[in-house]
Every structure is written in structure tokens, then in C-alpha cells.
Design brief:
- The structure is a single chain.
- By secondary structure, the protein is of the alpha/beta class.
- The protein has eleven helices and seven strands.
- Strands 4-3-2-1-5-6-7 form a seven-stranded parallel sheet, sandwiched between helices.
- β2, α5 and β3 form a beta-alpha-beta unit.
- α3 packs antiparallel against α4 and α4 packs parallel to α10.
- The chain is globular and about 85 Å long.
- The relative contact order is 0.13.
């Protein structure tokens, strides 16, 4: 008698990796990037954040000074300043200027974390960044120095991207879709601090300004643009007003700052005014 063959069952749909990675399952993947972070944040009892944006390429002051010293040593050894070394020195000198903001971000995040812990334990106004290096590392580092929770919202990129060591593994969130990561940045945020940065930072900054301008979040969200020397050169708000593409009042959406003391006072005073009353604390969970 011939042996009876048994049918092979396909995997259950929610265990079918091929299906879940297919275009047909895109809606499921998007939904998972909402539900999974929401559940993990609920378990961590994190209700809202203060978001830091800024360049992931910015070195720490120590790193920048070391790189400049190496270039100057090479120039001294060569006894001449080649075009290549002149360009390297200019880049290193610019990195030193940019690096001053690294420790400003560390200190501001540390002070805001100490303030938030004294205010409501360790559940509200948690420092959140992209979780990478540079200014993002500085923000998470400052929160860690204060003994507070700190979040990293990482994005999956074609090239390897590391998460800085100051974000605990349980508070690293990894995303495939940029728009879902942006959702989590804005949904939880009660304040935003924008340090010098490039395309990604400017994109996130202007997107938040647009949301506030159009009253899409029902909450009031203080925004600090930190680093006058950098931003006054990179962004020309007066030109936008002259051309009539924004109104003069739109500039009031954000607060320009160039010191930790000023930024700290602005953010904490606004948040205390908005959210530390009984009614405000009840609204803290809402957008």
C-alpha cells in the first residue's frame, strides 16, 4: 500500500514573514509601528516628552579639538599649507565652532530632566531624541547624567546606524517609516528644542512649525531654536516675511535662544504655565 502523503500547511498569516514584508501587508507594518511603541511606552509609564533635534554629525568638543590638533600637526610636519590641508583645517575649525552646542545640549537636557523628576517623578517630560550621535547623543547623555529616563527614536537606514549608549535598550524604538517616527516625535512632545543641524533637523523643525501654524495639534507646544550664530546664517525669516509667504506673527511660534539658562527658563516656565495646574495635568495625555 502506498504511503499516504500529508499536506503541508502554510504558516499562519501573522507568522508569514514573506507576506508581512510584501506590499500587500504595508498597512499591517504601518499599524505595527503605532501599536508596538504605544504598548511599550504604556508599560514604561511614559506620558509625554521634550524632544531634542540636531545634527547627528556634530562631534563633541573633545573630538573636534583632537581633529583640529591632528590637522595642525600635519601642517607643521609638512612645513607647507596645501589646498587639501587648508580645506581640512577649515572643516576642523568649523567643527570646533559647532561642537560648543554639544555640551549646551548635555547641560540643558540634564537640567530639564532634574526639573521634570522633581515635578512629577519620572513619567512626564522625558528627554527624547533620534537616538543617534552628535546632538542626539548629547541630549540622551544629559538626561542619563540626571538619572532620568530617555528615549531614542531610531530609523532603519540602508547603511548601519548605531544608537548611542545613553539610551537604555528598553527605550530604543526602531522604525522603517519616517512618517511614523515623526508621528511619535510630535504626538508625545510637550516641547521641542532644535539645535544646529542639517536636512533632517530642518525638515523636522519646519514640519512642527507648519503643524502649529495650522493648529493641527490641539496642545500648545513651546519651541526653542537654539544657536543664534548658526540659525541666523542658515535661515532667513525676514525674507519669508518680505515675500509674503509667512506673516510676521508666524515668527512668534518659536523662541530663539543662545544660552542654556535662557532656554531652560523658557521651556520650564511655559510647561509649568500650561501643564502643572490640575486641568493641565489632565490634558497632558492629549494632543
Amino acid at each position: 500500500m502506498a504511503e499516504k502523503k500529508t499536506s503541508e500547511f502554510p504558516p499562519l498569516p501573522y507568522l508569514n514573514a514573506k507576506f508581512l514584508k510584501s506590499p500587500a501587508a504595508r498597512a499591517i507594518r504601518i499599524l505595527s509601528e503605532y501599536l508596538e511603541p504605544a504598548e511599550r511606552l504604556r508599560r514604561a509609564q511614559i506620558r509625554d516628552t521634550i524632544v531634542f533635534f540636531g545634527s547627528a554629525r556634530s562631534p563633541s568638543p573633545d573630538q573636534a579639538a583632537q581633529e583640529l590638533a591632528q590637522v595642525n600637526e600635519q601642517i607643521a610636519r609638512d612645513g607647507a599649507l596645501s589646498t587639501e590641508l587648508a580645506q581640512a583645517r577649515r572643516r576642523a575649525e568649523t567643527a570646533v565652532k559647532l561642537a560648543r552646542y554639544y555640551y549646551d545640549a548635555v547641560e540643558l537636557a540634564r537640567r530639564l530632566t532634574e526639573w521634570s523628576k522633581a515635578l512629577s517623578g519620572n513619567h512626564d517630560f522625558i528627554i527624547c531624541s533620534r537616538g543617534s550621535g552628535g546632538m542626539m547623543e548629547a541630549a540622551n547623555r544629559g538626561a542619563s547624567l540626571a538619572g532620568g529616563k530617555t528615549i531614542g527614536l531610531n530609523i532603519e537606514l540602508p547603511h548601519e546606524q548605531s544608537v548611542n549608549s545613553y539610551v537604555p535598550p528598553e527605550l530604543v524604538f526602531n522604525f522603517h517609516y519616517f512618517f511614523m517616527r515623526k508621528f511619535w516625535f510630535v504626538y508625545l512632545a510637550k516641547a521641542l528644542v532644535v539645535f544646529p543641524g542639517g536636512f533632517g533637523t530642518i525638515d523636522e523643525f519646519f514640519e512642527v512649525l507648519t503643524l502649529i501654524q495650522t493648529s493641527k495639534p490641539s496642545k500648545v507646544m513651546p519651541v526653542v531654536l537654539y544657536g543664534n550664530e548658526y540659525w541666523d546664517e542658515v535661515l532667513h525669516y525676514d525674507a519669508l516675511i518680505r515675500w509674503g509667504t509667512i506673516s510676521a506673527n508666524d515668527i512668534q511660534i518659536f523662541h530663539k535662544s543662545d544660552s542654556v539658562d535662557d532656554a531652560y527658563k523658557y521651556v520650564t516656565s511655559k510647561l509649568e504655565e500650561l501643564y502643572t495646574t490640575p486641568a493641565g495635568l489632565d490634558q497632558i495625555k492629549l494632543t
